[in-house]
Amino acid sequence: MTKITQFTKSNLPALRTAIDAALKAVGDAHGIELRAGNCTFDSVKVTFKLEGKVLDAKVNEQKEKSDFLAYCGLFNLRPEDFGTIFTSTISGGRTETLTLVGFELKRRKFPIKCRKVDGSIILLTEMVTDRIRNATDAAKKAA
Fold first, then answer.
1. Residues 6+ positions from 101 with CB-CB distance below 8 Å
2. 46-77 residue pLDDT tens
């Protein structure tokens, strides 16, 4: 490992990798995920933002649900729409089965947060709210 004499754009990725490796041990000990976030630097000083995330799926789901309940009215959705499973045609003309899990309020064009069957997250426009409401209503009638 080479000693850093000044910070440059080319040596920061290696430093970030080393910091993330060290933070992994601390995060594992506390049951959370820790990583180095955005950074600013000049030739003699670097500042990394520390980002932490709770790994407990139940805690994360409770947070998503409470946020959903607080903001669903902004998107013409109802509290019972949380967790609705629906289909939507996404880019490339593919039809995906999605589950409504919340919102990304800072994303004006794509604020609707859904989970694909494979577990990945996709953001959609508000145009899907009618489809979500219809899927919720259909599920109620079927029950």
1. 64, 68, 82, 83, 113, 114, 115, 121
2. 999 999 998 888 888 888 899 999 999 999 99
pLDDT digits (tens, 9 = 90+) for 111-135: 999 999 998 999 999 999 999 999 9
CATH of domain 57-142: 2.30.30
Rg (CA), the chain: 21
Cα 82–chain centre separation:
16
Task: Sketch the domain layout of the chain as residue ranges.
Answer: 12-54, 57-142
Which residues are registered as beta bridge partners of 51? Answer: 35
pLDDT at 92 over 90: no
**Distance in angstroms (rounded) separating the CA atoms of residues 136 and 143:** 11
Question: Which amino acid is located at 61 in the chain?
Answer: E
